[in-house]
Specification:
CATH superfamily of the largest domain: Metalloproteases ("zincins"), catalytic domain
Radius of gyration: 23 Å
Distance between the termini: 53 Å
Strand content: 25-35%
Low-confidence stretches: 1-9
Number of strands: 11
CATH architecture of the largest domain: 2-Layer Sandwich
Number of domains: 2
Structural class: alpha/beta
Shape: globular
Largest sheet: 4 strands, mixed
Mean pLDDT: 89
Length: 246
């Protein structure tokens, strides 16, 4: 009867806790699970989440957290630096494109026109200048069209050098991936990449084209990437400083 009651006991709710790590206060979410056998740490845009066995001791928990203190504080700092303010889609807003910053200019007009790039400004002629939903759709459509053009140019440059021929290049809206490649030769590139510096766009394109030859991340794969992009390691580090935004 006792074992039956234990099986039916509810899973403990997640706890919000705080601790000082490497001299800094850290708030984290603690989750306990009867299925876990070890303590795991995850850091994302929601902060630090700690998953641990149901009956693990507080001593073990604190030992793991202090052992990983520098890693935790560095990762949290990186995520905080990556946080971006959601676009407001108003006149004068700063928007990124190919690693540069442009000012959005929403211009009252009798007709709705596509976005036009003028020096350091993005001009959007709209009838309904206060409709943020439609403004966002118009800017996103422009981003996607530009992404198709920029990605096509990158692939046209690197594919012959790498002696590969992708079957198709598609835009992606994935929330966690800059790119992907299927075994059938379909390369998907996140349209948000077009906001980033061109050398990072090049790196992601090279990375995915390399998967047409090696569908893994083996030493052979990275050798292919290095041949096309000798400083790929530095670009890879720089890429980690960016978050996918929509």
């Amino acid at each position: 009867m006792l074992s039956k009651l234990r099986r039916q006991s509810p899973t403990p709710a997640a706890e919000q806790r705080s601790i000082e790590l490497a001299g800094e206060p850290v708030i984290y979410t603690l989750k306990r699970s009867a299925k876990r056998r070890s303590i795991g740490l995850r850091i994302d845009d929601r902060g630090l989440t700690v998953s641990m066995p149901l009956r693990a001791s507080e001593k073990w928990l604190h030992s793991v957290l202090n052992e990983k203190a520098n890693w935790v504080t560095e990762k949290l700092s990186r995520w905080n630096n990556q946080k971006t303010i959601a676009p407001q889609w108003v006149d004068g807003e700063k928007l990124s494109f190919r690693g540069e910053t442009f000012t959005l200019r929403i211009i009252p007009s009798l007709f709705n026109l596509a976005v036009q790039l003028h020096d350091e400004e993005l001009h959007l002629h709209r009838i309904d200048i206060a409709d943020k939903v439609k403004i966002e759709k118009a800017i996103t459509l422009w981003y996607r069209c530009e992404a198709e053009r920029v990605f096509a140019e990158c692939v046209a440059h690197y594919a012959p050098l790498m002696q590969v021929s992708p079957q198709q290049i598609k835009l992606s809206s994935a929330r966690t991936q800059w790119g992907s490649c299927t075994s059938r030769g379909v390369v998907r590139l996140n349209w948000s990449l077009v906001k980033m510096p061109l050398h990072l766009i090049d790196y992601v394109v090279v990375h995915e084209l390399a998967h047409l030859l090696e569908m893994n991340h083996s030493a052979a794969f990275w050798h292919i990437v290095e041949n096309a992009c000798p400083d790929y390691a530095q670009r890879r580090i720089e890429l980690r400083q960016y978050r996918i935004t929509e």
